[in-house]
Design brief:
By secondary structure, the chain is an alpha+beta fold. It contains four helices and seven strands, in the order βααβββαβαββ. Helix 1 crosses helix 2. The two termini are about 20 Å apart.
Length: about 180
């Protein structure tokens, strides 16, 4: 399946995919879907930092998308990314998410990043947990009952994967932009 950098023209389809997940799922703790304009701003922020924002497409349009951002804002986290991945409802279970996250990993490693985190909403989100485990992520933490959505208290699962040399060597220069 083709994977390429997202483009501004993809944002309406990206917003529709995300809106579905916000309204029906617990993988995102947002409760109101962001507008297309808000998604455009988020896309610009990711691109402005040189972090990857990828889409998988076919003749029907955007099948799913994934992007990576710095795990936390503090400078010491500059070698650690957090991934986000969302797949169009009719494409779930078809390998789209796994292909997108694998592409993020490859780009992040090539740019010199050392760790990737997955912050997964809902400890019952077996799809996302399994997808990340299949790509070498290991569960490193659980925050219990930190989100309330659809009348349920939800956990957050932390998973982590080393990139490239991971912590095995001293840090070098800052990661190169992923562009």
């Amino acid at each position: 399946m083709p994977i390429r950098p997202a483009e501004p023209a993809d944002i309406p389809e990206i917003q529709a995919i995300y809106a579905h997940h916000v309204l029906t799922g617990t993988g995102s703790f947002e409760e109101t879907p962001p507008s297309v304009e808000e998604m455009e701003a988020r896309f610009a922020k990711v691109g402005g930092h040189g972090w990857p924002f990828l889409v998988s497409t076919d003749a029907t349009g955007v099948l799913g998308y994934a992007y990576a951002t710095q795990f936390r804002d503090r400078s010491a986290y500059r070698f650690t990314l957090e991934d986000s991945v969302y797949v169009r409802q009719d494409q779930r279970g078809q390998g789209v998410g796994k292909a997108l996250v694998a592409a993020l990993i490859a780009r992040a490693e090539a740019a010199g990043f050392r760790q990737m985190m997955a912050v997964i909403g809902d400890s019952e989100n077996v799809g996302s947990i399994g997808l990340h485990a299949s790509l070498g992520f290991q569960r490193v933490g659980l925050l219990r009952a930190v989100g309330l959505k659809f009348g349920r208290w939800l956990d957050v699962v932390y998973m982590q994967r080393a990139l490239g040399a991971g912590a095995g060597t001293a840090a070098g220069d800052d990661p190169r932009p992923l562009g």
